[in-house]
Amino acid sequence: MSRLEIRDLNHAYVSDKPILKNINIDINEAGVIAIIGPSGTGKSTLLRCINRLIQPTNGSIIFKNNDVANVKGKPLRELRRQIGMVFQEYNLVERLSVLENVLTGRLGYMSAWSAWRRNFTDKDIKRAFELLDFVGLSDFATQRADSLSGGQRQRVGIARALMQEPAILLADEPTSSLDPKTSVEIMELLTQLANDKGIPTLVNIHDVNLAKRYAQRMIGMSGGKVVYDGPPDGIKDEHLKTIYGGESWLQ
Amino acid sequence: MATVVDRKHPFKTSLSSKFLWLGLFAYLAYAFSTLDIGWNRFVLGLDQGARLVDRLFPPNFARWELLLSDLIESLQIAIIASVLGIVISLFVGLMAARNLMPNAISIPVRVFIALCRTFHPVIIAILFVKAVGFGAMAGILTLTVASIGFVAKLFAEAIEEISFKQVEAIRATGAGFISTIVFAVIPQVFSRFIGFSIYQLDSNLRNSTMIGIVGAGGLGGTLFSAFQRFDYDFVTAILMAIIALILVGEALSNLVRRIFQ
């Protein structure tokens, strides 16, 4: 039994125009699993189906003995809180403080009444500070999230996802809005987490070289299908040609 | 080699806008000609105005006890109606936001808000005076309805303009609907909501001095009867009291603004 089993997953935003076609993926190992592929091929859609920000058209996503694709309401939220997500544009609540943003990772474990009163447990608050320390932002705890730089915001995003104590982490283009140096730092952080804490981490990424450098497994997608699934050094130029099309860009 | 392209002049005024202006001026000329609003009429009126001003001064504060109790009543009507209206608007506005609610909820709520906005407070006040009788009760209900019409509409619009990415991120943590509202929606609209609320309090203070004219409590009633009895010196006293009330309101809104920013 794998930690995450995606079976025959299909999704179409507009009927007759499928984005995902019969996706089958098994995730069992900790560490970074990079998903590469051209824009518009359904990488984001795939990740968003896993935590059900999108309802897939059909297929199943088995996680913790539940089919994420077919639950609703409270059971869905209880699965979601075990799936951390990091976004391309960080998606922090800009007017809240950095600490509050990290603590929102606990909302799935609290009642609405506690959330309204900001009634976080001492344990949660202590953990939030530890995570901020871990991502190197403890001095920024009381600052508003919109005062941070891109790289700092993404670190807060990662801390928020970790606050959920996730069994699996999804990162949707976590480095695409960042400069090359910061991108590498964020990838290092994600890799460290994935390996040290043993969290399987699915990362959508444009940069093939960055992916090869950090991933222990790569999934290549093209036209809504998985066309490669294996170790990073197994990816050859002909694979990249199938994934992205053309070859002039490889020179 | 540049080829000469025959483009239309980009800033040419369209024929239809010329006709629109022409139509507007023609209508103004017609409207002037039908109403009795010439210069002679104005001079005739000035004469009457001079007599009024003469009788307005000095202000007469002999009935200051009545004045003070009316003033306090107006202030109470305005504050109670503002608080009630704003609290109700919070929920109504949320339910009217089309990006958070299904059409089955947002459309009826929007119709309700539109109804609250349709009538001028004086008309609503007449209805409530007939429904619940003379006095402050009718005034509070009137201004509550007026507040909902304004604040709920603007609040719904503010919610519709929020960044949905932040909402999505909070939803992805497994947060429920209300927690998502509390942590992803309210922070984005809170400062604007305070702004609308202060504006509404200001507006309610002004209106609370007027609805009394139709019997819904506050200073207006006393003002109206003073006019009718030609007690113009008392009218001045009441007008000065209203100015004082508005100044108090101004100070109050500044205080609220300072606390929340």
Automatic annotation (TrEMBL), chain A:
<dbReference type="InterPro" id="IPR027417">
    <property type="entry name" value="P-loop_NTPase"/>
</dbReference>
<dbReference type="InterPro" id="IPR050086">
    <property type="entry name" value="MetN_ABC_transporter-like"/>
</dbReference>
<dbReference type="GO" id="GO:0005886">
    <property type="term" value="C:plasma membrane"/>
</dbReference>
<dbReference type="GO" id="GO:0005524">
    <property type="term" value="F:ATP binding"/>
</dbReference>
<dbReference type="GO" id="GO:0016887">
    <property type="term" value="F:ATP hydrolysis activity"/>
</dbReference>
<dbReference type="InterPro" id="IPR003439">
    <property type="entry name" value="ABC_transporter-like_ATP-bd"/>
</dbReference>
<keyword id="KW-0813">Transport</keyword>
<keyword id="KW-0378">Hydrolase</keyword>
<protein>
    <submittedName>
        <fullName>Phosphonate ABC transporter ATP-binding protein</fullName>
        <ecNumber>3.6.3.28</ecNumber>
    </submittedName>
</protein>
<keyword id="KW-0067">ATP-binding</keyword>
<dbReference type="GO" id="GO:0015416">
    <property type="term" value="F:ABC-type phosphonate transporter activity"/>
</dbReference>
<dbReference type="InterPro" id="IPR003593">
    <property type="entry name" value="AAA+_ATPase"/>
</dbReference>
<feature type="domain" description="ABC transporter">
    <location>
        <begin position="4"/>
        <end position="248"/>
    </location>
</feature>
<keyword id="KW-1003">Cell membrane</keyword>
<keyword id="KW-0472">Membrane</keyword>
<dbReference type="InterPro" id="IPR012693">
    <property type="entry name" value="ABC_transpr_PhnC"/>
</dbReference>
<keyword id="KW-1278">Translocase</keyword>
<keyword id="KW-0547">Nucleotide-binding</keyword>
<dbReference type="Pfam" id="PF00005">
    <property type="entry name" value="ABC_tran"/>
</dbReference>
<dbReference type="InterPro" id="IPR017871">
    <property type="entry name" value="ABC_transporter-like_CS"/>
</dbReference>
<comment type="similarity">
    <text>Belongs to the ABC transporter superfamily.</text>
</comment>
Automatic annotation (TrEMBL), chain B:
<protein>
    <submittedName>
        <fullName>Phosphonate ABC transporter, permease protein PhnE</fullName>
    </submittedName>
</protein>
<feature type="transmembrane region" description="Helical">
    <location>
        <begin position="20"/>
        <end position="39"/>
    </location>
</feature>
<keyword id="KW-1133">Transmembrane helix</keyword>
<feature type="transmembrane region" description="Helical">
    <location>
        <begin position="168"/>
        <end position="190"/>
    </location>
</feature>
<comment type="similarity">
    <text>Belongs to the binding-protein-dependent transport system permease family.</text>
</comment>
<dbReference type="GO" id="GO:0005886">
    <property type="term" value="C:plasma membrane"/>
</dbReference>
<keyword id="KW-0472">Membrane</keyword>
<keyword id="KW-0812">Transmembrane</keyword>
<dbReference type="InterPro" id="IPR035906">
    <property type="entry name" value="MetI-like_sf"/>
</dbReference>
<feature type="transmembrane region" description="Helical">
    <location>
        <begin position="134"/>
        <end position="156"/>
    </location>
</feature>
<dbReference type="Pfam" id="PF00528">
    <property type="entry name" value="BPD_transp_1"/>
</dbReference>
<dbReference type="InterPro" id="IPR005769">
    <property type="entry name" value="PhnE/PtxC"/>
</dbReference>
<keyword id="KW-1003">Cell membrane</keyword>
<feature type="domain" description="ABC transmembrane type-1">
    <location>
        <begin position="71"/>
        <end position="253"/>
    </location>
</feature>
<keyword id="KW-0813">Transport</keyword>
<feature type="transmembrane region" description="Helical">
    <location>
        <begin position="75"/>
        <end position="97"/>
    </location>
</feature>
<dbReference type="InterPro" id="IPR000515">
    <property type="entry name" value="MetI-like"/>
</dbReference>
<feature type="transmembrane region" description="Helical">
    <location>
        <begin position="109"/>
        <end position="128"/>
    </location>
</feature>
<feature type="transmembrane region" description="Helical">
    <location>
        <begin position="234"/>
        <end position="256"/>
    </location>
</feature>
<dbReference type="GO" id="GO:0015416">
    <property type="term" value="F:ABC-type phosphonate transporter activity"/>
</dbReference>
